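TEACHING EXERCISE
Course module: macromolecular assemblies
Task: Read the component lines below, then compare them to the predicted structure of the full complex.
Student: A.B.
Group: 4
Components provided:
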Amino acid sequence: MAKYVSYEDSGVSIDANDVMVERIQSYVAGTFGPRVMAGKNAFAGMFRLDYDEKLFKRNYRNPVLVACTDGVGSKVQLAGAMKRFDSVGIDLVAMSVNDMLVQGAEPLFFLDYLAVNKLEPAFISELVKGVAAGCKLADCALIGGETAEMPDTYAKGDFDMAGFAVGIVERKKIVTGRAVRPGDVVLGLASSGLHSNGYTLVRNICFKQNKLKVDARPAEFGGARLGDVLLEPTRIYVRAVVKLLRQYKVKQVVHAMAHITGGGLVGNIPRVLPDRCNAVLKKSSWPVPKVFGFLQEKGPVKEAEMFRVFNMGVGYVLIVAEDFADSIMKKLAKYGEKVYKIGRITTGAGKVVLK
Amino acid sequence: MAKYVSYEDSGVSIDANDVMVERIQSYVAGTFGPRVMAGKNAFAGMFRLDYDEKLFKRNYRNPVLVACTDGVGSKVQLAGAMKRFDSVGIDLVAMSVNDMLVQGAEPLFFLDYLAVNKLEPAFISELVKGVAAGCKLADCALIGGETAEMPDTYAKGDFDMAGFAVGIVERKKIVTGRAVRPGDVVLGLASSGLHSNGYTLVRNICFKQNKLKVDARPAEFGGARLGDVLLEPTRIYVRAVVKLLRQYKVKQVVHAMAHITGGGLVGNIPRVLPDRCNAVLKKSSWPVPKVFGFLQEKGPVKEAEMFRVFNMGVGYVLIVAEDFADSIMKKLAKYGEKVYKIGRITTGAGKVVLK
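Instructor-supplied answer key:
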């Protein structure tokens, strides 16, 4: 008699999926606010707009939905090598919510897509724990997700993750960069480290060129493990920036913002700069974390390439009206950010000039 | 002198990314309606809610956002083997929009995440062309996306994709399944084939167990290539179902709906069935496409397993009030769907009974 072939034989386990769904439920529910309409086994996540409630009407006359998607690049490979899965979820949320923040939006909800070689409930629940932690830091609800088991695409131990965030902004308050003008001050918010870009290069330098181990403890890092330094989660700027923007209900004093991801300061600031302006940045005006010097030396990597790939210590940029720069700096510092005056807007051609 | 290491040497090409962005622009723009606020190089996609306009106010008093994410599973592997990349994007959109449709939502916008071994503009633009085609079929705008080049996670030629859809539904009109009662009629809408589930099993049966080639032309398929039959894109039910729901502004005659994905009819219908009801389905009441018989025989696969993994010819289910069943069937047929009366709701325990 012929042997029957089943889905499970082919490498996909439907029952493991059920176990996992149960496990992650508590992490997910911890991110819910009163606007989430939860449904067990639901086909889709639901989020009320409070359209008929006073709070919404006071804040929004003409709301615009803002949406982003991103992954964390090959930082997932590093997490795999470290077998530390509870922090890349924070990176995943950070990449999308920091992006929408640039337009002045406040995050409402988030969904994640996880693709793995094998559904191991303990591993998946660690990943989701991180995503939920990120959502809490960004004040958004984790209202949906998908976990795909794809043994033929992902090698054993390999995985990937993609995140999707939806936020909202009042139409008149969208921050576009159009108001940027010569004399404006460029403020930089400190990054927590590498954030989530350039990891293919980082891994090449550390593990291929220099054959370091993830648990090496280079003298530069004062006893910390290399892998932990590299895996430091991306800073989420949502709370501080949303709070700041709410302080200026009428005046538009924040003229542009940029999330410093792949492309670095030189690649991302021009995305919000008018063609007639340059941003002149003074490299000595903020401290560059040790991890960047370490990578530059170990490569070696040319300085220009470093600035084209990495954030170099500045994870988020605000271009603000000169007269308000000091008070904005004070506010951001009070909200917990390390903030530096890193440059000025001049007449120019839509470029970043490093001095 | 030491050789400098660059990002490009490490396998990631920033310039190829720029070329690609240019190419896909036209496909993406083709999905835009007047509510999309497009911005070149924008950090996030923006979509106006028309909150202050008459059309919106007439349709929505208390809107709820509905969001879904999904991939297409290992159907991407099959597309890779076929080197046919312009249709899996349709599957990607279908998986998410058919899910949100279950709750009565109409899709507003979509975002995609593509992860590849190498950014080849021609290949990526084919993928995005498919996503844009799917968005047009679902009447939603493709307002954002991310393409990640991850040479260490994805083998040469391998890729993965995740989709994310946001829609809207008036709170009172959310279809929940709570109204389902004995006597209700179960309607099935024909699938276009395998849709996007069970491909790890499909590939195991066809290519491992039976060592067939993707360009084989089995007698069962009347001259069609096996790979093309397996790659047939998932049907998108949005237009027909949204149009149907709009016909019943006051009466709630559609009591529940289900998108038949992994788990099949037996796994998905219970997700919207009250605990006190069963759905009794008559297997002979709809035609099962040849591809399912082919796989069942070639496996061989037990019939129960077939029904647990595949849609078996029914891609979407509506549970409707008995008195309206015939007129709903007529309407859905008029809107282009093949529709079958496949069963009845009885008192029971929240299960599907196949007869």
